Structures are given as structure tokens and as C-alpha cells.
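Entry for adenosine-5'-triphosphate complex. Fields follow.
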Amino acid sequence: MKEKKNIMKVIGLRKRYPEFFLNNISFHLESGKITGLIGANGMGKSTTIKLLLQIIKADDGEIYFQNRNILENKDISYKRKIGYVGENTDFFSQCRLNDIKKFYQSFYPDWIEDDYKVISNKLGIKSNYKMKDLSKGMRMKFNLCLALSHRPKLLLMDEPTSGLDPLVRNEVLYILKEQVRKYGTSILFSSHIIEDMEKIADYLIFIHQGKIIEQCEAKKILNQGISIDMYLENLIKQKGDKL
Ligand SMILES: Nc1ncnc2c1ncn2[C@@H]1O[C@H](COP(=O)(O)OP(=O)(O)OP(=O)(O)O)[C@@H](O)[C@H]1O
């Protein structure tokens, strides 16, 4: 049997805010697979992703990327191997996409211009437009296109499909699947849209009130013939007071 490799491993990660505690979370991301991070609003999904990128500082814990503890190592060049698509797509609003692309590209030595051309074509991105003139869906697609054009080993996406119509969501999901198939990209994808998870996730991580309450294969749930949201509801009921 082929040995499973992890691109990222998180152990005992903690972050305290005045009214929220991300409490001792541990999980792993298998290489070349799509993992969905599921939880309702305010449960800690964005905080988790920001900690992985060191956009915010962890209070405690270990994060290994390609077997290296990134919290102990001052060298941040690993960030070039990670793509990020966040919720906030409203930046450089007065700039043309082509100029934003050139600026972004300058940070990534592994930038592949042909990938940018192919993906932007597929997603219908018009590089002469200004950011402020794009719809929310188009801004998200542009961000995704930037993140994929340096062929990241790991793509972290925070609620990428929230607020988008089903057609655009399907287009995005298709591109993600294609990226995994062609280049073996690993993806962590946070969402509260269960339908998207059912369509593409290999693994699921359930987060509730700042704790990971389960990590499992998506097919384990789907084979039981129940929906993912029903499964989550049951999990929360079963764990009850222990949460
Ligand atoms: N900088 C901050 N200072 C204080 N509290 C914060 C900060 N950032 C997040 N929080 C709190 O931490 C909790 C978790 O927030 P987080 O954004 O991680 O949730 P989420 O699961 O991503 O939710 P959503 O789906 O609504 O984006 C929330 O209660 C939020 O108010």
C-alpha cells in the first residue's frame, strides 16, 4: 500500500482572544488531497488559516510544513510554496489587473506565466480591467489565478466560494480539482457551504467553538448516506458537555 505523506502537520496550536479561544488544535493535511475545514460562523476557521500563514502569531503549538517547524525557523521562504486566497478580495482597487499581477509575480521566483495565461483564460479574466470594476466572483477568480500561477505546493483558501453564485462556485471547484490532478497540489479549503465540500473534499476537519471535533475521510460520511451538515449536527450533540 502507498504510504500517505503529509504536507502540513499542526500540533497543539493555541490562540487566545478576549472572547474566543482556539484551543489546542491538531490536524494534518495529506499531500495531493483536498481537505475541507468546516464550521459555522465564528468557530475559528479564519483564525486557524491565518495562524498557518503566520499572519497572526500563535500563543503555543507547532506547525510543520514539509516536515519543518515553521514557527521555530526564521527563514520564511517556505511562504513562496503556499498560495493563499482569503475572504477579502478588495485590494488595489484603482489598479489594473495586469499591474497587480506584475507586482505579485515579483515575489514569486517560481511564477509560471503560461499557467497565468491558461487559468485567466479559463476563468474569463480580463487583465486590462481595474480591480474596482470587477464583480465579487471575478475578484475571487483573479485571486485564485494569482495564487495558482506560482504552482504552490499547498493552497490555503478561506471561504473562497461564500457569496458566489452556484455557476461561479462550480467553475472554481473544477479548477481546484484540475490543479490537484495535474500538479498534485494540496488544498485546505474553509467553508460553511456543505455542498462544495461534498463535491470536492477528500478529507474533512470539523471545527466547533475553537476545537477540532473530528478529522476524517469525506467518503466515510457520504458512504453512510447522510449529509455532512447532519453528521456535524450529530457530532455536536454526541460530544455535548465534553466540548
Ligand atoms: N483580531 C481579533 N481580535 C479579537 N477577536 C477576534 C479577532 N479575530 C477573530 N476574533 C474572534 O474569534 C472568533 C473566531 O473568528 P474566526 O474569524 O476565526 O471565525 P470563522 O470560523 O472564520 O467565522 P466566519 O465563517 O464568520 O468567517 C470570533 O468570535 C471572532 O470575533
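NOTE: DSSP finds eight helices and ten strands in the chain.
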